[in-house]
Design brief:
With 114 residues, this protein is mainly beta. 30% of the residues are buried. Strands 2-10-9-4-5-6 form a 6-stranded mixed β-sheet, with no helix packed on it. The protein has a 4-stranded antiparallel β-sheet with strand order 1-3-8-7, with no helix packed on it. Helix content is 0%, strand content 50%.
């Protein structure tokens, strides 16, 4: 059974940091490019960061230099290190496969206070 379980969100002040995790099961994780998305209230879901099977990364311009996506293929887990958080980063964060989307997990709420 395919599962994506996001965790690590919370309430943080502007300038703070959080590390999100996405534990996966039921997929061949090491063979998939993975992505983090986020969805703020009243807005469309947007792509935040992606990572290839080989570890190549790309970021949305709004988070470049502040966020770092990484993966641990031995743990089938995807990460997102978020530094210098801003109120506009407030959203529910989701992970997924980039090219063969899977059933969405529940996401993890990130709230950044000013």
């Amino acid at each position: 059974q395919v599962q994506l379980v996001e965790s690590g969100g919370g309430l943080v002040q502007a300038g703070g940091s959080l590390r999100l995790s996405c534990a996966t099961s039921g997929i061949n994780f090491s063979r998939k490019a993975m992505v983090w998305y986020r969805q703020a209230p009243g807005k469309q879901r947007e792509l935040v960061a992606s990572i290839t099977m080989g570890g190549g990364t790309n970021y949305a311009s709004s988070v470049k230099g502040r966020f770092t996506i990484s993966r641990d293929n031995t743990k089938n887990t995807l990460y997102l290190q978020m530094n210098s958080l801003r109120p506009e980063d407030t959203a529910v964060y989701y992970c997924n496969s980039q090219w063969s989307p899977l059933a969405w997990g529940q996401g993890t709420q990130v709230t950044v206070s000013s």
